[in-house]
Design brief:
- There is one protein chain.
- By secondary structure, this protein is mainly beta.
- The protein folds into two domains: 94 residues, no CATH class; 60 residues, no CATH class.
- It has two helices and 15 strands.
- A three-stranded mixed β-sheet has the order 1-10-9, with no helix packed on it. Strands 4-5-6 form a three-stranded antiparallel β-sheet, with no helix packed on it.
- Bound molecules: zinc ion (ZN).
- The site of zinc ion has 8 residues, from loops.
Amino acid sequence: MNLKSKSTHVSTSTQTVVLPRTEWEVIFSEVDGVKSIERVQPIPESWFDLRKIEGLPANVTLLALLTCPKCREVNALAKGVTKIDSLGKLIPNFVCGVSTCKFTAEVYLDKFHDKPLYALALENGERIELSYTHANNVKEASLAVSGKLLSGWRVIGIGPAIGYHVQPGSKGSVVIA
Ligand SMILES: [Zn+2]
């Protein structure tokens, strides 16, 4: 592993990754009427919803497949192991199952609950904070932080969470791709 980072206060914070929902090519096999996943053609840096696949046995506990943001290997999320909160955030944090990778991050699955995830960057003169909300547009997203705006915070960036990056601690580095 090659870690060249010299950052101090930033290095302790966990990286946040928001993955878009995409349609993967998934090949299923069937033995004695039981369907299972044989092969997948993953789309890097995204997740695939397994909840609506028809014909899987009732005891299939997989919720979703996703590619590791670092090594790009497919990881499966299973019910009872990973919880997904109301914003599509994985609990506990994602840890890549590839033993040589073990990449760890705070991961959100965009559109897990169908509505897009929006990211908002806020600053109060001392620090920048990033928060997430479900919304259909920028105006709706901004309502989510109206309480904070009354206590001295200011919105410096807002946009769909996909492709949205904030470098913590460095002012003016909000990028909406
Ligand atoms: Zn990995």
